[in-house]
Amino acid sequence: MIWFLGVLVVIVFGRTWLQSCREGFVSLKSATRLKRTGVHKTGEIIGFEECVDKEGDKWFYPIIVFSYQGRQWQFISQAGYDDKGLAGAYVRVIHDPLTPNLAEVDNLMALFGGPALTLYFQILFLVLAAGYAIQEFLA
To answer: Where is the chain membrane-spanning (predicted)?
Structure first.
């Protein structure tokens, strides 16, 4: 009977889980494409966007500006920091040559950290749920 409840929970949360997995794969594919075909530039951190998480911790997301084809482009990195100590620093930026506003800091965690962690936790959830269901089924 307990395994039935486990299956019911998987069905109810399945759509959300599949959507989250899809977003993780799309983000990973986008980051891989950007890494393969992107243009490398040097950008400057000109400020930070401040966000507060559920626990009340502050995170600062750098606002970065770079030049490409005679224009200035600006973006907010997805790599958050817990202090503003990097203001004025120069960082390597990678951007899409056709749409330069699609840019990110050129490092492993900024490009692949979010998608990889999303997929890791989704697969971990699937394995744990399947293991629990099998255990309950065999008991």
So the answer is: 108-134
